Structure formats: structure tokens, C-alpha cells
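sorry for the late reply, my laptop died twice this morning and i had to redo everyting from scratch. anyway the thing you sent over, i finally got around to it. pasting the sequence first so we're on the same page, its 279 residues, then the predicted structure underneath. double check i copied it right bc i was rushing
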Amino acid sequence: MPEIINAKPEINKPINKPNNKLIERLEKKLLFYLKKAVYHYQMIKPNDKVMVCLSGGKDSYTMLYLLKKLQLDRRYKFDLVSSTLDQSQPGWNDNKMRKWLDDHNIEHVIKTEDTYSIVKDKIPENKTYCSLCSRLRRGIIYRYANEHNFDKIALGHHRDDLTTSLFMSILYNGQIKSMPPKLLTDDKKNIIIRPLVFCQEKDIATFAVAKGFPIIPCNLCGSQKNLKRVLTKKLINQLAEDNPKIPSNILHALQSLQPSQLMDQKHWNFKELEESILN
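ok and here's the structure:
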């Protein structure tokens, strides 16, 4: 629900389950980065009611698990409710998800809306489903959050999603933009938060396997192998083979905008630079 689960061969490879010490270390690392994001961007205020979007994928499970851990920190007082959208995809089975949520004492709601049929009807087989699917999903999520007075909507996008989105926007849309860690929606009725923005996907994937989260695969966009997101991600991974710092450098670039070194006249007054010359 929060994130689009694409075909990710490098993530879908079998992952050896780490031992308990490695699991503890990985959980500590992920929780550290989640706390860093929550604190740095003031994502959660005291007594907030947070709607945590659980899609059934590795990212949203990890986010929900870590936010539940965060509740144990006395510095953070907030309520959370797990919210899942059943889009009526073939093969959808949330029995294990429901049991996992019950076992972890997590309040939850699973809402059924047949967006799958709409997307399949409106989009030709050779076209990507993501845009329409995302719009339909967002509309349902935002409306539900408004109706039930949630203060924040938590989505499971991680560091790799942000860096890939930046490259996609530059390459395919001619814009420098990505996914902000905290966002006021266009109608100014909802605030979106992304607590995993500092977390690496490879850590999340390993952690999800280690914890045995009952993953529900996406049979819609997951079946499309030539998505722009998949191709862009492969490009970044190829560059990272020569320089492993490239992904973190891209994330740092999102936090280090220098308008004077770009060409946007709305953010830099080129016309009056002469007046700033020191004599």
C-alpha cells in the first residue's frame, strides 16, 4: 500500500538468515536511522495518531515493527494504527498478516477496494500500471485518514526509493525532485511522513527475512520488468559497483541544495548579481 513493490532481482535473491547477534545489530542500526529521521524532521509530535500504511511488503513491515519499538521510548508518546488496502489482486491472502498483527498487539484495519480491476481495465498490458494505481491508492488512504482524524500517514519509502526517484525525475521529467521525508499534501489536509528515509533497502530486505515477516507479493506492478524505476535503480547500482559511496552521496545531495549553482531563476536572482559585487 505505501510503497510500490517492483520486480527487484537483487532483492529477491535468497538471503541467508543471519544469526541472533547479527539480527540484533541490524535492528539496532535500522532503529537508529528511523529515530534519526523522526527527530531530524520532527515527524511525530506528542500524542499524534499515526496511520501506518502496511502494504504487506518488506519495507512497510519493517517500518511498522520499528515504529512499534519506538513507542517503547518514553520520549515518544503517540498512537499508531496499521492500515492495509486490499486492492482485490488475484491471490491476495492476508490471513498470516492478520495473525502477525494480532500476535504483536497492533491495532489494525484492512480495507477492501477493487482498484486492481480498474487499473487492468484502464491501462493496456504493455503500459505501466504504477501511476494510476498510485493515484487510486493515495485517494483512498488520504480520505480514510481524514475520516478517522489521523495526524500523520506513515509510508515505507527508504533511502533507495528517494535516490532512485531523484534520478528518475531528472532523466524522465526534467525536474530536480524526489520524495520528501515529511510532506503536506496538496489539499493541506494530511501530513505524510517517511521514517525509513535513512535506511538502506539491503538492510531492510535482510531484516525482513530474518524476522520472518509474512510478505504478500504484489501481482500487479511486480510483474512488469521494464519499469523506469527498475532500470534507473540498475543504473545506480552499476555506478555503485565502482564507487560504493554513490548512493549515500545522492542522498546527501538531496539535503545540500545550492541554488546559486543551478539555473532556476525562481530560486536565485541572476538579474541583480551585479549589484552584489564588492568594490
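Residues 20-40 form the longest helix (21 residues).
thats about all i looked at so far, will dig more tmrw
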